[in-house]
Amino acid sequence: MEQAPLWVPSEAFKAAQPLSHFIDWCESSLGTSFADYDSFHTWSTSDRGAFWSAVWDYCGVVGTKGGIALANGDDMLQARFFPEAQLNFAENLLAHAGDGDALIFRGENKVSDRWSWQRLTAMVSRLQQAMQALGIGPGDRIAAMMPNMPETIALMLAASSLGAIWSSCSPDFGEQGVLDRFGQIEPSLFIACDGYWYNGKRQDVADKVVAVGARLGVPVLIVPYAGETAALVEKLQDGRSLEQFVSPFSVKEIIYRRLPFAHPLYILFSSGTTGVPKCIVHSAGGTLLQHLKEHRFHCGISAGDRLFYFTTCGWMMWNWLASGLACGATLCLFDGSPFYPDGNVLFDYAAEERFAIFGTSAKYIDAVRKGGLTPKTTHDLSSLRLMTSTGSPLSPEGFSFVYEGIKGDIQLASISGGTDIVSCFVLGNPLKPVWRGEIQGPGLGLAMDVWNDEGQPVRGEKGELVCTKAFPSMPIMFWNDPDGAKYHAAYFDRFDNVWCHGDFAEWTEHGGIIIHGRSDATLNPGGVRIGTAEIYNQVEQLDEVIEAICIGQDFEDDVRVILFVRLAPGLTLDEALDKKIKAKIRTGASPRHVPAKIIQVSDIPRTKSGKIVELAVREVVHGRPVKNKEALANPDALDLFANLPQLQS
């Protein structure tokens, strides 16, 4: 007998949803009717121009829309949404005003702050003027290595108000990890904090900031947080503190530079699996419309709602969170360890500030469960109506725990998309039940499907997650990819004129989706995408290591990083070398890149052209057959990775 759903929206809940109001509005304005949500979704993908135009109008986008909603709609790569439109991203996010909270901040238990809309707008005004004084304008890149704090939001808004392109990472990235990203995009300004807090300890970044600033060769702006700002500024060739940066300027009306819909807004970075990270460029209009749709309709966000996502500035969920301002939501920002001083810290925050939406990772939910915490009995979460989970698939046990241990009457939305689309392909739906282990369904306006290797839609079996029609938040390009070859190879080599996302997915009988993980070699420990190339770049600097291969092993409802190393002749992997390798990865890449286990092997399989084969090793470790062994120069090396006792615990 089938289990009952974990949550069913009441009629009153559904009636109160912005999604219900939007469907009614579309019916009235179009002079039509939709039998149910599924018929509305079908319309949203079959008449995308009308749908996205309705999103623009209903959400009150500030700008001029123009007369064309979609041109060349049948060609994924040539499609253009709102080619005549003019808008400014920051103008839409700062459309609200007053003394109400725009941003609330907690930096572990060390720092707390609260910014009104008025304070935020005033800071953006001064930052805009300061950036203009540096000559920053449309198309210039601004790179930030920053914590998730209010100043970061303000700096991004100031950049986008001018039409500059924002790119960020978190301050725990190693020097080379930062340069691998920002070195490619040649920024006009590098922004960094003077230190940050993690697990109760101050983390110094001064040497790294000085080194990165020197390599980039651009002005450096230091934002005070957890270090010695003045001392750091003194060490920089062209440095200034935030106070020095804005002090010459008084608050005046912000001048928003309205630009085309497809003007670049963000550069996000791929995980760096096969080399330096790809620079994925997202548009202002596409990002704004897609996020408005997800926030308003899939998450039910209204003005004044408290929106929280546990994220760093190196993850696209930070960009997603920032867009919540366009709905008038109050952003609840947090930086640091979610388990310092203990595992209650985020639930304390949720109760005290009365979150409406609590966003986190599947790994965090699992850690709360394994830690024996039951916020349901210890915290007042009565204001919380939606919990979202992403980063890696949430296990069925994780689904059950949310209802048993966190809150019984809550919509749980497992969501999945990625950096590639700065949003979600599949996510929550406040009008439908939540079933254990299932994502509720595809996003409005997205013609998402699951295809087999022959390019045929499949039901009841696993396949590739695809999108068969163009959508606004597709990247506009990759940076330094003038002929679009890298972009095409990333998404369109597998199926002609169809976006292939690289997720292994399956439709359920309820019309939901299960994501079974990545179908490529990207690692995803704890819900954070990382790339093997970034690990190799560090490990192979060590004289002791000849070569290495890294995979993700499915383990205890998560993925853990396993590093195999071939050492110089006569060497054995002992405790000292194990620690040395991990320390190198931690400082050169980030703590998230450190493998759970390092195992010595005598050989590493490679193709005849000399490329190591991560996917084949991953298959062997999981006891699955390897296809195309004949493509390998040394297929017998695969036997070294089978049935290893070290991987059983």
Beta content comes to 15-25%
Total DSSP E strands:
32
Query: Major β-sheet, in short?
Result: 7 strands, mixed
First-to-last CA distance: 34 Å
Average predicted local confidence, pLDDT: 93
Helix content: 25-40%
Low-confidence segments, given as residue ranges, are none
Which sequence of strands runs across the widest sheet? 6-5-18-17-19-20-21
Describe the structure.
The protein is α/β, with parallel strands linked by helices. The protein is 31% helix and 23% strand. The chain contains 21 helices and 32 strands. The chain has a 7-stranded mixed β-sheet, sandwiched between helices. A 5-stranded parallel β-sheet has the order 8-7-9-12-13, with helices on both faces. A 4-stranded antiparallel β-sheet has the order 25-26-28-29, with no helix packed on it. Strand 7, helix 7 and strand 8 form a beta-alpha-beta unit.
Quick overview of this protein structure:
The chain has 649 residues and is of the alpha/beta class.
For this entry, give a set of tags.
5-stranded parallel β-sheet; 649 residues; globular; 32 strands; 7-stranded mixed β-sheet; alpha/beta
Element layout with pairings:
Elements: H1 11-15, H2 18-30, H3 37-46, H4 48-58, E1 63-64, E2 70-71, E3 80-81, E4 86-87, H5 89-93, E5 101-107, E6 111-116, H6 117-133, E7 141-145, H7 150-161, E8 165-169, H8 175-185, E9 189-193, E10 196-198, E11 201-203, H9 206-216, E12 220-223, H10 229-235, E13 239-241, H11 242-246, E14 259-260, E15 264-269, E16 279-283, H12 284-298, E17 306-309, H13 316-322, E18 330-335, H14 345-353, E19 357-361, H15 362-370, H16 375-378, E20 386-390, H17 396-406, E21 411-414, E22 416-418, E23 423-427, E24 441-442, E25 448-451, E26 463-467, E27 477-478, H18 485-491, E28 499-507, E29 513-518, H19 532-539, E30 545-555, E31 558-567, H20 575-588, E32 597-600, H21 614-621
Helix pairs in contact: 3-4, 6-7, 8-9, 15-17
